[in-house]
Amino acid sequence: MLGLRLLVVIAVFLGSTLLFRIAAGSLKITKLNMISAIYYYLLVFSLIGGSLMYLGMREHYMLRFALNKAENIDKAYYAVAYTMIMFPTVLILMKKFLGIFLRRREIKEFTYAEICVSEKRTRMFFFVLFLGLVCAGATLYVFRNLGYNPIIALLKRQNLSVLRQVAGSSGGNQYIKNLLMTALTPYVSYLAYVYARVTREKKWCILFLGLGVLSVLVLTYDFQKAPIIMYLIGFYLLEVGMGNILNLRWFRYLGIAAAALIVGFYVISGAASHLGSIYTGPVGRIIFSQFSPLILHLDVFPARTGFLNGASFYSWMSPLFPAAEGLRSGRVVMQITNPAGIREGVAGVMNTVFIGEAWANFGTVGIIIAPIIFGAVIGLAATLIPAIKKTPVTILLYAQLTLLFMNIVEGGFVDIFYSASTIFLLGVTVAMWAFSGPGELAVESGLERAERRWRAC
């Protein structure tokens, strides 16, 4: 039996890797793009952990909440395996379909194309500076309403589980907190970084340093580790987009920085003893903690409560989904499986891969159609954006959408249909294009730099 399961795991891994390789064009880390980044995200956070549980490693702490653990582990693995096959298949079909109507530019061509910077970039600088001041004001507003200083709370080793729930439910107006502070701050810091790297002008470097420090602050105010790691990944995507990644040096630096941050959080929070644990340590948190809630989703719906039937969609979508009320499946699963944690104020949501919320709302049909819908939407973005003229704003848009899609893969099925932060940042991007003006100043491309370095060697 174990031998047969091992063959299934190997077949799924090889088949999905091949399909993603065709869809992405390349799975090389030095050529990371929207599709390959999502592949690695699904691989690390869902498929590896799911495969290990499917093969017998079933002692993760979250599984104590499951009533029918063995059966639902198998179901969850098969659901992830289906997603890893169907999702890249749809991406490949989307690429071929869109190629009928427009001339596609491969992401490799986009990566090594010249970067065009408008001669009116001074006007752009003041616009980004204005946005940075807005972000700073929003951060001061939120921290004042939180009633505590996150840095001091962390150093004092206060109960971070409680503070995390306080941070999620308070902080004043949620639009100011989630859009102007949490979403906009790292976004404008990325743009300042691109301009600093391309133009090498001191004013852009100073602006980026300020926005970078502010971004670290706003991404760690609720003591979560994932947002700051995703922020670091964003810089790597920007470097790839600018054509600057010629070897794995940058990736090694990124890995070291991410590892240092994780270890630092464990030490400061008093959980250093768990660092070596395969289930409760950082490795277990990475490979098991997104797959385990999928098992709980399958365990809860419909055996312990009925399917949501579209209740996870926002209330304004009620003409399409009459039950829509913004009820996220991750919260429902937490309320049912860990009511004590909810009462004590230390439990939030059971986030999992997007097919979990699709199952919670629509059952088997949801799992079947979710990878198809995701493949169509992401395939459209991955094909169209590289066809746009390459400017700092275009590089920023491609990197940010990659990060947003990676978050949506975990965040939930509903977010692919509507995400306030995505729409808001797209609106900001349009404003950036309006301020930047047409790209006129050609900057040496990554390909030219690579060729020059190769000739020098």
By secondary-structure content and strand pairing, the structural class works out as mainly alpha
Report the sheet-strand fraction: under 5%
Shape: globular
Strand order of the largest sheet: 1-2
Number of strands: 2
The helix tally amounts to: 20
Order of helices and strands: HHHHEHHHHHHHHHHHHHHHEH
Nearest-integer average pLDDT: 86
Rounded radius of gyration (Å): 22 Å
The end-to-end distance, rounded to whole angstroms, is 54 Å
Poorly predicted sequence stretches spanning 5 or more consecutive residues:
440-446, 449-457
The largest β sheet comes out as:
2 strands, antiparallel
Folded structure, characterized:
By secondary structure, the chain is an all-alpha fold. The chain is built from 20 helices and two strands. The protein has helices at residues 2-24, 34-55, 69-101, 107-111, 121-146, 150-155, 160-169, 174-199, 202-219, 226-241, 249-268, 282-287, 291-300, 329-337, 339-344, 355-362, 364-384, 392-411, 420-436, 446-456, and strands spanning 115-117, 441-443. A two-stranded antiparallel ribbon has the order 1-2. Helix 13 packs across helix 14 and helix 16 (355-362) crosses helix 17 (364-384). The radius of gyration is 22 Å and the shape is globular.
In short:
The protein is mostly helical and 457 residues long.
Please give the structural blueprint.
Elements: H1 2-24, H2 34-55, H3 69-101, H4 107-111, E1 115-117, H5 121-146, H6 150-155, H7 160-169, H8 174-199, H9 202-219, H10 226-241, H11 249-268, H12 282-287, H13 291-300, H14 329-337, H15 339-344, H16 355-362, H17 364-384, H18 392-411, H19 420-436, E2 441-443, H20 446-456
Antiparallel strand pairs: 1-2
Helix pairs in contact: 1-2, 1-3, 2-3, 2-18, 3-13, 3-17, 5-8, 5-9, 8-9, 8-10, 8-18, 8-19, 10-11, 10-18, 13-14, 13-16, 16-17, 18-19
